[in-house]
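Entry:
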Amino acid sequence: MNLTVQSPPAPPRQQPAPGGVTSPVPGPEGVAERGRQRVSRLTTSLRQTPGQLRGILAVLVVLTLGAGVTAMVSILGKNAVIEETTSQSGRLSVAALDLYQALSQADATAASSYLTPGAASEEVRDAYREALRDATVALTTAAGEVETSADAQLVANLNAHLPVYTGLVESARTFNRLGEPVGATYQHQASTLMRSEMLPDADALQHNAIDQLGEARESAASFPWIPAVLAALALGVLVWAQLWLTRRTNRVFNLGLVGATVAMVGMVGWLVLVSLASASHTDRSHEEGADPLALLAEAHIAAQQARAEESLVLIARGEDSKAEERYTAQMELLTGEDGLLAQLNEAYGDDPELADSLAAAQESAGTWSAGHDEVIKLARAGEYSAAVEMAVGDSEESLATSFDALNEQLTAATEVSADRFVDATGDASRSLSGAAAGLATLCLLALVSAAIGIQMRVAEYHA
């Protein structure tokens, strides 16, 4: 019997699909083939006017939507930063400043009250209790606004030290009332705790808050470059598209593209104006508000610290030479040739709302400084009672009167600067009002108008 070896059957040949087009090849080769076909069709389409018009529309959609979204995000971000300036970081900055001032005032009045027996002493002690109350409120506010662990630790330290300080002051008062000299030691310990621990922590908290406020200012005043560039590119494409269509169709205007151009011009103009206005008001809030407030706060604190050291000199009956040195340093900081009052008068001496208060403050500080020399002469001459009376009495010539006048004048200037800060920050926020929604609306109008204008031209090729 003969056996015949047959070859395996050949695979069926692929039959052409109707219309003469080969059916897609399955597998990776088929996917690649389909990709090449799509690229080919796209390339072919872009060689023709309708495809080129659709390409222009796609570019305009990307640029216009990008400009609208980034502009809206930028404006909303600026508004949030400005609100934070007047709320969280602003409240923390104010609370930290109030805390420092209240602690300094408490230390100054506690030392002064030690020197003043009787009814006059009760008035000073009332001021001391009010300063402690203000410090407690400021510390509570700061505790609710801190965001970093470092600031939280500073607040915790102050919370721990405040009752210790008040306990030392009360012990000093008790022993002083009993006529025991050890009271002076307790008062000295209280002032040392305030000067070496509490005020440095309050100062660190204040500077951290000011740094945060400065960062917020830079963010609020920054120009929105990304939306501005995207909008400018969209405008450039619109102008180019109209010139290109004019050459292709011999028609001067495309109403849709003209409308889109007008809308984009309005969007760019509005964006630039509100950004510049917001930045101007933000800068004004710092130049006329935050900057003088910072100098005035330092002047307040220097005066209060000098007053506390002056009282310690008398409490120690001349035995604390360091207190006199610290007093001299604080007064040099306050009234020196390049001191805080000199800086304030140089920077804001022409300001009609601040000039009188600043000039009067400098005069009061000079009177106080001159009177201090007389007090020291009396104390060194053994006339301790006369020295104390001149330092803390209620006569027109007393140092307490000069100090109170200085404090009132600095407070008046502080209130003016604080009002200006609030007004300028409010103006910055109002300048952005409605801008986010308005810019988004103009971008959508531009997009719709451009789409209508281009689709009308595309439709003419299929008519």
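Confidence is low (pLDDT under 50) at residues 1-7.
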